[in-house]
Every structure is written in structure tokens, then in C-alpha cells.
């Protein structure tokens, strides 16, 4: 009998400790984790947060007190990251990842970008680690049960980010200055091109002209491309520029010249040019 007991103890000792522990039960978080990623021009912005619910409670001025630093969500502090330097409501903020805290107020909020990204809530928030503080005005909004970050407006140079919960929206603006960055890169791209490279000035001109950015400089790049090698692509771009400037007659002449430069591989572009010519005729 004693031998059997000793053998049983030996077998039990051989079982890994983890196998002897009570299994853990996984349950959903009451405030589920969420993430929103938005490209703003050339810059990627990612916001990671948890979404608490209203659940019939009064939120601002009650559950979330006025004048107190709030984690802007639940569980871990909300984080926000930028792949490039940006501005927030016009104020500069270096690229990187930050924890995003807020100080809600009845008429004004303070939005805080703190350099300590990984922290639990705002319990160990240290103002000395703030990278930037800006103010924003809360706005009345449709009811939102689960808190969310929304990006309702986006352009190449800016986006509006809104914190939405209960009946409030708190917007702030992220600026990226992408247009000027592209123009700066385009200037370097063109100046570094080989003398016989018509594509570099054409590509720079195409972006500037089609986006309506510094069209005067784009026109110079286009002239440079045409001087090197007239072809269906840069001639059609010139035609579009002429039409935009109100010279539809000149645009049609240039477009026909572009078609004369076509090769059998340019059938799709020829069809596009003919559509443009027809639209310029009817709009005269």
C-alpha cells in the first residue's frame, strides 16, 4: 500500500505545475478595444483605444468629471501615433506615439499628447511628460452609445478628428503639410533628372497641374518635358491645362496633336482624349 502511495506521489510530482492550476476563463471586456487608421496625405495616423458605453449613465460632468485628466476611453490610456511630424490645431508635434489624455470642460476641453505612450489609464499621468496641449470646443452631436474616434473630414493636408460619446463631439485638426512636402520632393526630383529624361518633369507637372498646386511651376515642368520629347502623355496634359485656363480651342488643337503621336498601345488613352475633345466642344 505504501508503495502505491509513493508511486502516486511521484506521478503527481511529474505533472507540470501549469497543468495543476485552475484554467483561466476568457471573457469579453466591457469596453472593447478598437483602432482607427487614417492616411492624411503622406502621413499615417493610428489611434488605439477602448470604447466604454453610456449604459444609461450621465457621462460628462458626472462619470467623467469636468476639470480632471481623463484617459479618453477605458482600460489602457488611448494612444495616437503619427508617421511624420504634424500640427495639432496649428501647433507642432513631432512624429511618434503618444498617450492621448483630455481634461473635459463644459465649454472647453484640453487635449493632451503625452510622451509616455504605454500606461494604464491616466492614473500615473505626469504633466512633465506632455509633448503638447491644445484646446478644443465641444459640440452637440447625435447620441453615441459607445465612445469612438471619428475622422469625418480628410484632405491631403489635414484631417478633422472627433472624440464622440454620449451627446458630444470634440473635434481637433491634424495638419500634415503634405502638399508642400510633395512640391519640395518634386523640385528635387526634376533637378536630379538626366537632361534627356522627359518623364521626371512630366510626372511632377502632372501632379501639380491635376491637383491645382502651384500650376505656374507645374507649367514650367511641362514645358521642359515637351521640349525634350513631345508625346501623347505630355501633350494631353498640356491640352487639359489649356482647357482649364479657358482656351478650349487651343486645348482641342493640342489634343489632336497628342493623338497624332499615339502608338497601337495607346488605344485607351486615345479614347480618353477623344472624350475630352467632345466635352470641350459641347461646353464652348
3D architecture notes:
The chain is 35% helix and 29% strand. By secondary structure, it is an alpha+beta fold. The protein has two domains: 33-175, no CATH class; 178-282, Serine Threonine Protein Phosphatase 5, Tetratricopeptide repeat. The strands form two sheets. Strands 1-2-3-6-7-8 form a six-stranded antiparallel beta sheet, with no helix packed on it. Strands 5-4-10-9 form a four-stranded antiparallel beta sheet, with no helix packed on it.
Helices and strands in order, then pairings?
Blueprint: H1 2-14, H2 17-20, E1 33-40, E2 43-50, E3 78-82, E4 86-88, E5 91-93, E6 96-103, E7 109-114, E8 130-136, E9 139-154, E10 158-175, H3 178-191, H4 199-210, H5 215-228, H6 232-244, H7 248-260, H8 267-282
Antiparallel strand pairs: 1-2, 2-3, 3-6, 4-5, 4-10, 6-7, 7-8, 9-10
Q: What is this structure, in a nutshell?
A:
The protein is α+β, with helices and mostly antiparallel strands and 284 residues long.
Number of strands: 10
Computed over alpha carbons, the radius of gyration is 30 Å
Q: Specify the structural class.
A: alpha+beta
How many separate helices? 8
Which strand-content bin applies to the residues? 25-35%
| Element-by-element helix/strand order | HHEEEEEEEEEEHHHHHH
Low-pLDDT regions: none
Amino acid at each position: 500500500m505504501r508503495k502505491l502511495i509513493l508511486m502516486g506521489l511521484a506521478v503527481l510530482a511529474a505533472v507540470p505545475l501549469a497543468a495543476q492550476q485552475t484554467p483561466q476563463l476568457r471573457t469579453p471586456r466591457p469596453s472593447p478595444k478598437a483602432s482607427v487608421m487614417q492616411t492624411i496625405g503622406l502621413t499615417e495616423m493610428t489611434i488605439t483605444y477602448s470604447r466604454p458605453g453610456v449604459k444609461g449613465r450621465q457621462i460628462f460632468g458626472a462619470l467623467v468629471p469636468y476639470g480632471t485628466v481623463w484617459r479618453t476611453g477605458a482600460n489602457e490610456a488611448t494612444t495616437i501615433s503619427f508617421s511624420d511630424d504634424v500640427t495639432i490645431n496649428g501647433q507642432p508635434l513631432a512624429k511618434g506615439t503618444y498617450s492621448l489624455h483630455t481634461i473635459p470642460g463644459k465649454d472647453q476641453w484640453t487635449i493632451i499628447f503625452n510622451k509616455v505612450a504605454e500606461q494604464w489609464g491616466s492614473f500615473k499621468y505626469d504633466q512633465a511628460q506632455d509633448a503638447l496641449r491644445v484646446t478644443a470646443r465641444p459640440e452637440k452631436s447625435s447620441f453615441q452609445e459607445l465612445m469612438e474616434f471619428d475622422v469625418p473630414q480628410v484632405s491631403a493636408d489635414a484631417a478633422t478628428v472627433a472624440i464622440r460619446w454620449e451627446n458630444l463631439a470634440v473635434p481637433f485638426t491634424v495638419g500634415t503639410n503634405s502638399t508642400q512636402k510633395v512640391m519640395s520632393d518634386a523640385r528635387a526630383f526634376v533637378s536630379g533628372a538626366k537632361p534627356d529624361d522627359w518623364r521626371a518633369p512630366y510626372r511632377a507637372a502632372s501632379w501639380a497641374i491635376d491637383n491645382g498646386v502651384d500650376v505656374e511651376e507645374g507649367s514650367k515642368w511641362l514645358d521642359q518635358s515637351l521640349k525634350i520629347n513631345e508625346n501623347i502623355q505630355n501633350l494631353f496634359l498640356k491640352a487639359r491645362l489649356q482647357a482649364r485656363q479657358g482656351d478650349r480651342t487651343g486645348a482641342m488643337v493640342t489634343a489632336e496633336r497628342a493623338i497624332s503621336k499615339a502608338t497601337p498601345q495607346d488605344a485607351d488613352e486615345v479614347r480618353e482624349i477623344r472624350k475630352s475633345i467632345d466635352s470641350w466642344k459641347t461646353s464652348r
